[in-house]
Amino acid sequence: MMKRDVHITARDLLNAMQFREGDLGRIGILSGQPQRIEMCLEILGNPIKNFSAFGYTLWTGEYKGKRITVGNGGMYAPDAALVTEIVCEGGVDVLIRLGSCGALRTYIDIDYVVIAEAALRGDGVTNYYVNDGFVPRAERELIEASSSIFDGKNVHYGTVWTTDALLRETKEIINRVIKEGAIGVDMVTSPFLTIANLYKRRALAILVVSDNLITGEMGFFDIRFFDAEREMVDKAFKLIEAIDA
Predict the structure, then answer these.
(1) How many angstroms separate the Cα of 7 from the Cα of each of 10, 14, 33?
(2) Is the dihedral of CA 149, 191, 136, 187 positive or negative?
(3) 210 close to 94: Cβ distance less than 8 angstroms
(4) Where are the domains of the chain?
(5) H-type alpha helices, the chain
(6) Cβ atoms 198, 84 nearer than 8 A
(7) b (16+ CB within 10 A) / e for 154-164
(8) Distances (CA, A) of 210 to 7, 113, 148, 185, 222
(9) I want to staple 92 with a disulfide (CB 3.0 to 4.6 A). Which of 87, 111, 127, 223 is the partner?
(10) What is the pLDDT of residue 8?
(11) Longest distance between any two alpha carbons in the chain, whole Å
């Protein structure tokens, strides 16, 4: 029978990668899509690779006098949970997730932005971290700071539902989560915010709309979507300028 409380911890993984305290910045930008990370690295000054392991890579550099860590934060709930816990354990205090989502309202179009204030947990990972009633939330101060940068009719604030099953977003399930208040759906926000909450870290998820489950519109390869990704990255760095960290 197993005697240890946990087989592997985030600290164990950091030690295996020869992590040293202070290697990571106090602010972290995570995203699952490599093109968003490349956009961030174009802005980051003097980025140094911290490590590359298990398919994930983190770099730390400077921006406007602040040390920023940028990296692959996972594309799905399990790897998003893994990377989020690693960076939290590694000393990152402010976490910003740059992602995408499907819209659950007809008025939220392709290339609009959804700021996730909270998440409905449809993923399987967070059940291992918290009880059924737990609601992961973004930090209120980061939400308020973002409102002066991400503003206008193309930005919506609200709850995002996270699922593990992209190809099983059925009418029955989607209509239920809409009634529960979700305005968007993704595969990452729930574990990202849950683990940040448990570590008492400041966190915010910013999501560009890639498709609309109500109208059926698909924008995964739409130029509007790609342009919105670039704008999201640029505004995320403006947000970093604005926050006290």
Answers:
(1) 10, 14, 29
(2) positive
(3) no
(4) 10-242
(5) 10-16, 34-43, 77-89, 140-147, 171-179, 189-198, 223-242
(6) no
(7) ebbbbbbbbbe
(8) 38, 10, 23, 10, 8
(9) 87
(10) 93
(11) 57
Tokens, residue 102 = 């499907």
Give 159's strand partners: 118, 182
Sign of CA dihedral 218, 224, 227, 228: negative
The answer, as to whether pTM is greater than 0.85, is yes
Q: Is the pLDDT of residue 219 over 80?
A: yes
pLDDT in tens, 128-179: 999 999 999 999 999 999 999 998 889 999 999 999 999 999 999 999 999 9
**Inter-residue contact 70 to 59 (CB < 8 Å):** yes
**Which CATH number applies to 10-242?**
3.40.50.1580
Question: Is the distance from CB of 100 to CB of 210 less than 8 angstroms?
Answer: yes
Beta carbons within 8 Å of 69's beta carbon, 6+ residues apart: 24, 25, 27, 28, 29, 50, 58, 59, 60, 87, 92
For residue 153 the two structure tokens come to 């009719």
Average confidence score pLDDT of the chain = 96
Q: Provide the token pair at 225.
A: 């979507």
What span, in angstroms and rounded, lies between the C-alpha atoms of 121 and 99?
Answer: 17
Nearest to 56 by CA among 75, 39, 71: 71
Q: Which amino acid is at 30?
A: L
